[in-house]
């Protein structure tokens, strides 16, 4: 005959209470097993094993700059290098202290000017750039020093004209070559006609 379910439940509760509170039954509580701390050699082995497993899984493949030398090695120390690098890689504009944003803008200034169609726009942009550089040099809120130079408006406008003229000459040359060369179908037709003439001869 099966045991009474109520008796089984009572025994289960008693055993659980004995396990949780052995001191109530005159027993010594089981000593908690504390893990042994890892030695330095074991820690190095664990790290090396984790790295090797990650390499085998391909977690380090196709990282930015893989197989290339580290940028900025040998340059002068710049405490804000990470901000400047973030602005450049993310192509952010208007973020960060003026010293860094103006430095990035100065590096791309010729490209920005080349995208402007009118000389008046170029002059206005250069004057605004110089004004912001001068204002940043007068800053009173601290931050990295502003080392970006101002631009000579007349010299930059002359350089902008020269670059635009060079682009126009290059475009005209490409267009002349395209117009001078016969259409591919015409070249094929001429070649086919010459082949037929040679065969009839």
UniProtKB/TrEMBL annotation:
Stretches for region Disordered:
1-42, 162-201
- Locations of Basic residues compositional bias? 183-194
- For the DnaJ homologue subfamily C member 28 conserved domain, which residue ranges apply? 47-114
Q: Which domain of life is it from?
A: Bacteria
Biased segments, Basic and acidic residues type:
7-24
**Protein's recorded name:** DUF1992 domain-containing protein
